[in-house]
Amino acid sequence: MTARSILVTRATGTQGIAVCRHLRQKGFIVHGLARNISDERTAPLKGLDIEFFQGTEEDRDAVDRAVAGCAGVFLNTMPNMRESGSEARQSKTVLETAKAAGVEQVVNSTSIGVGRLDTIRSDLKTSLPTQVIQGKVEVEAAVRDAGIETWTILRSGYFMNNFLWPLGNVMFPELASERKFISSYAPDTPLALIDPDDIGAFTAAAFEDPSRFAGEVFELVGEKLPTEQAIEKLSAAVGMPIEAVYRTAEESEALAQSNPMVASQLMTLPIHKLADMTRAKSFGITMHTFDEFLTREKDSVRATFALEHGDAIKLF
């Protein structure tokens, strides 16, 4: 049987790399769309025989070139913080172009927050993080209504690599430089963690067996850990103590007015608690624990905590 071709959007990002790798392992032909397809950006996928196309998800001509001959699309959108409605525009361009090209299947990656908007505090509903979640609600609706034969939605949890460079140095600036994890969580706040590699595995499985995954919406969470325990595991992997500092409620409320990272933590407190792991795990696809992720990514762990704060920000 002739191998199916799949278009992976944002192919050089965290999710895109994982999806490309798993698709190639399953024998799919992969087209990768990315804004930057330089050797440096595509290096993690070197040797996998992926055909790259330069462009963004809003560039209809680029999408048209990239999707030609493809039977499926992995759709991953990201917000442009300077422009409202950016994710809706990205999904509209990709989905319309894909349908016109004869694409039969789309797998869409969003966030566990999409199904939990009713848990967000009323005073945070206009915050930037909530607007991001609302954008993904619109993307999911576009996927369902696109007229493409088969769709699957993956609502991913909190990425395990959010603790590592480069994301960790932005989300938790003191983590690598001062060995301090400063957050608005509490020690017992559960974190609904996902190894990005598992997103790749689920996506490849969905393209391998479209009928089984058709119309399914999964919350992808590999492990729920109390914040304190997650930091203890990270500290053990680093080989040095990391101090967990928990802001008071008053400190968090004051910072949330101007700091979207703090607002995001407050917004997601109930979302992490309610995340449902059972449906995804019932499909029998291996989901990795935080310990397993840290062991596999030991080189990234070492590199993250060897960086000085200034170097980390400059590199990002």
Automatic annotation (TrEMBL):
Organism: Viridothelium virens
One Gene Ontology cellular component: nucleus
Record protein name field: NAD(P)-binding protein
Family assignment from sequence similarity: Belongs to the NmrA-type oxidoreductase family.
NmrA-like domain residues: 5-250
Keywords of the record: NADP, Oxidoreductase
Organism domain of life: Eukaryota
Coiled coil segments of this chain: none
Stored PANTHER family: NITROGEN METABOLITE REPRESSION PROTEIN NMRA FAMILY MEMBER, NMRA-LIKE DOMAIN-CONTAINING PROTEIN
GO molecular function terms attached to this record: oxidoreductase activity
